[in-house]
Amino acid sequence: MESIEILILVASFITLLLIGLPVAHCIGISSLITLLVSMDPIIAMTTMAQRMATGLDSFSLLAIPFFIVAGQFMNHGGIANKLVNFAKSIIGMLPGGLAYVNIVACMLFGAVSGSAAAAASAMGSFMGPKMKEEGYDPEFSAAVNITSSTTGLLIPPSNVLIVYSLASGGVSIAALFLAGYLPGILMGLALIFIAGYFAFRKKYSVGERTSLKNMFLTFIDAIPSLFLLILIIGGIVGGIFTATEASAVAVLYTFILTVFIYKEIKLKDVPKILLNSSNTTSIVTLLIATSMGMSWVMSFEDIPQAVSSGLLSISDNGIIILLMINLILLFVGIFMDMTPAVLIFTPIFLPIVTTLGIDPIHFGIIMVMNLCIGLCTPPVGSVLFIGCSVAGLPIQKVIKPLVPMFIGMILVLMLVTYIPWITMAVPQFFGF
User: Fold this and answer.
1) Tally of CA atoms within 13 A in the half-sphere of 67 that contains its CB
2) pLDDT tens, 143-184?
3) Upper half-sphere CA count for residue 415 (Cβ side, 13 Å)
């Protein structure tokens, strides 16, 4: 009977996904159908509702809507221009410099906004036309923008790391934030290396050398934006406030910065920004609620134990187990959005890796890196769609230049997977 219920859960989810229902609806409906098979209808519906409500009953989750609001202020407040000008003054004079600028600016903007979608939209709109003017192929520019936008999900503050903390049963958010720095920077460097190789081979133009004075001025102009990272991470690590409190501080800081200092946002525009933030928050919270419901259903059906037994029956070698988990997560990332994937698969894989002696912090970064790659892949890669839409290109044309970028990202994933020091060095330095 249990195998029938598992089959119903998987088949109904895939069927609903194929007919075009939103992912949150697919997760919730397939979970409810599975419960209806195994228990009384009233009990099934009550249980699903309770699990969804309980899943959202977390103080840590309050950080997500606050960071979304802060990201919206960043996205509309001229922050992208400041960061691009700063990055351009440092590396814009190198061969293929605008590609490097795009990558570095996406890393910085993704970090301060906490959103890969916002980074892809803002940087694609700003850098795409500039790169086209300098003779860069639009497909190459879009591929650079799409892949580099995901690095901000590793460099804190990152909403998905907060979600992982919830799904893992309370892994320190501060430790996860610190653990993301080196992997995120390493991912960015890999993309820079690949972009540099193609820029050199295709002889893209070299930007003008910037004077030290102009470099200093652009740095001064970008300091208020960059200070958000110091404020948030410094406050959390220093014990001044929690991650949730830090998110509220981020909203206040970005509001003052964009409305009163940069003056890129008018007070009359604030209600619209808050409304957009509410729409995004509602989508995210529905995904979290239904995913928590599905996680409970999977646990009820003993799916985590079955997967664990299956993997360990194939091999008890940690290297092989991690490779299989990476392959599964890469495949999952192709079809499922990041938030539900973290909530559903963390309870399945975390017990397996902890038996192998892998730190939950380390595994959290491995999981997020896998799913970051999934954001760039069809058919459900949200960042891929946004990047192609902003560039005005069909997905088919962007796939070819994306392939070497994918290879570089996967190589970094393997390094992070099998060299724990890359992830754990910074948290351990700060005593986590």
Assistant:
1) 31
2) 888 888 888 788 887 888 888 998 888 888 889 989 999 999
3) 14
Crossing angle of the two packed helices 79-91 and 97-113, in degrees rounded to 10: 140
- Which amino acid, residue 233? I
Distance CA 432, CA 428 (A): 5
Within 10 Å of residue 419's Cβ, how many Cβ atoms?
Answer: 12
Burial class (CB in 10 A: 0-12, 13-18, 19+), 275: exposed
| Site of tokens 């001025």 | 217
The string of DSSP codes covering 227-252 is HHHHHHHHHHHTTSS-HHHHHHHHHH
| Cβ partners under 8 Å of residue 178, min gap 6 | 156, 233, 237, 426, 427, 430, 432
Q: Which two three-digit tokens encode residue 356?
A: 């192998």
CA distance 108 to 226: 8
In single-letter form, the type of residue at position 428 comes to: Q
Q: How many residues appear in the chain?
A: 432
Q: What is the pLDDT of residues 353-405, one digit of tens each?
A: 998 889 999 999 999 999 888 888 876 677 887 788 878 888 788 888 889 99
Q: Which two tokens stand for residue 139?
A: 């497909």
Gap between the terminal Cα atoms of the chain: 44
Q: In this structure, what DSSP letter does residue 203 have?
A: T
The answer to whether 71 and 274 are in contact (CB under 8 A) is: no
User: What single DSSP character describes residue 60?
Assistant: G
Residue 159 to residues 36, 45, 66, 335, Cα–Cα distance (Å): 33, 29, 10, 20
Domain boundaries, the chain: 59-265+301-429
pTM beyond 0.90, yes or no:
no
